[in-house]
Amino acid sequence: MNGPDRKTTRYVVAGGGSAGWITAAILAHFLPPDAASIILVESEEIGIIGVGEATVPLLGQLNALLGIHEPDFVAATNGTFKLGIEFVDWGEKGNRHFHGFGDFGEDIDGLAPHQHWLRLNKTGAIPPLGEWSMPWAAGRRDRFAPPQAMKGEAAQFSYAYHFDAALYAGFLRRLAEAKGVKRVEGRIIDAERDGETGLVSHLTLDGGHRIDGDIFVDCTGFASLLLGKTLGVPYRDWSEWLPCDRAAAVPSSRAGRLTPFTRATALPAGWRWRIPLQSRTGNGHVYASRFLSDDEAVAQLLTGLDGEQLAEPRLLRFTPGRRDRFWEGNVIAIGLAAGFLEPLESTAIQLIQTGAARIVEYLPSGRPDAALAAEYNRQTALEYERIRDFIIAHYCRSRRTEPLWREVATMDLPETLAHKLAVWSACGRVPLYELESHQEASWVSILIGQGIIPNSHNPRADALPESKVRTILEQRRMFLAQAAGRMPAHDYFISRTCSAREMA
Ligand SMILES: Cc1cc2nc3c(=O)[nH]c(=O)nc-3n(C[C@H](O)[C@H](O)[C@H](O)COP(=O)(O)OP(=O)(O)OC[C@H]3O[C@@H](n4cnc5c(N)ncnc54)[C@H](O)[C@@H]3O)c2cc1C
């Protein structure tokens, strides 16, 4: 049956990168098979972007929801575990700090631990705040165990994964196909719109094959074929705040012990990533082309490798920002087709997950609705903006002296971020808005980690005798260090539970 009486909604997912396959898997999982048919079109000839190897803990929730067995997933994707990100040379050269997936422990006398740390920091020497982060206690020792293997405060953290992007796409494809998603191979050359409604009615593939649908999910990557090209939804360019617009990526052979964290090292015109996988290391240099040539960027990337270079470097160009709207008519864009923020906090796959979940939430009947589209767009825009602000916060108070860093240190900030930083500066608290991905502990770890110390802390922290606070903090610090010392080495944990070699 065709037309409005048809009971099954035909979802067409255009594109088979991480965005396409995650979206297809989520739709197939949540939508009853008799209410939805899901077709995914992708072109092997065009391929996928093939970067995107570090994640945030939300991925574990998706895996659990989709019934993915963690050891199988990690082994199949050459994966490793990630407790957070080590930042090197951010704020100023020589600085090191860690953004772990966890907080700094329970409140003391009703106040967050960092308030007490700020008080003690004023009066005398105190170890870096990161010493009260369980992820860092484990990460700095190259150790890993899941929180369920730990006890008390040592169990209060979460974790994410690093994986091989190409293997991940294949893994997702097998999963989604097993859930009933039908894959069509071919290059989309046209998207036809209905003359009356303006809705997209079908895609035409190279060779003439036609794919009809009711809802089209645009996962065509930076091409944004449906939302951007066909519907002409404009792109909001955020380069005034995020000047990096290029990346060079290269794999190198594995060197030394497996670190259970991503490393992000600030460089004169950007920063480099280091992502440890079981058999190799992923490296990349994200930079601002206004301040550095491609050749120089590649040279800096190759100079800093800690293993043997395994391939020619790949160059990628991007414009930081987002589409004005994500859902227009019967098209919803997910992934790079919807927007892109530099991968400093590994948030792109998270945005794919939340975008796809939002489709299920706001399109339950499979019929486009203006009010639901508006709500989808409102929430998604906020989510992008919150992450944007968090990433800008890594740059905007830097004391580095190279031209890029001087420029970002004096730029006008988005109002939402300027307000946050003003409150932080006045009292050491971070006001959180609707749809924040990063909670206060994450902001605190970035701000204090970079040496952005507020003028004042909460005066209630002064109520406790200083010696008592020192004792509590020292006991906690020792407890975390000892707990981390009892964890297995990250390498060993992987070799025992999810070795990629066992799968080969
Ligand atoms: C330098 C860099 C580093 C990154 N690092 C991270 C990270 O560490 N963590 C993270 O979460 N994210 C990261 N990302 C983002 C991440 O790579 C993407 O969000 C993720 O891979 C999803 O990409 P995608 O599926 O939207 O696009 P793509 O992978 O580009 O997929 C697009 C799909 O559309 C298909 N397609 C396009 N045009 C057509 C057509 N005409 N016909 C048919 N099919 C078509 C392609 O074949 C492909 O299947 C990074 C991105 C960049 C640029």
UniProtKB/TrEMBL annotation:
One of its GO terms (molecular function) is nucleotide binding. 7-chloro-L-tryptophan binds at residue 82. The active site is at residue 82. The keyword RNA-binding does not apply. Keywords: FAD, Flavoprotein, Membrane, Nucleotide-binding, Transmembrane, Transmembrane helix. FAD binds at residues 16-19, 336, 349. Pfam families: Trp_halogenase. It comes from the Bacteria. L-tryptophan binds at residue 345. InterPro entries: FAD/NAD-bd_sf, Flavin-dep_Halogenase_NPB, Flavin_halogenase, Trp_halogen. The chain crosses the membrane at residues 12-31. This is Tryptophan halogenase.
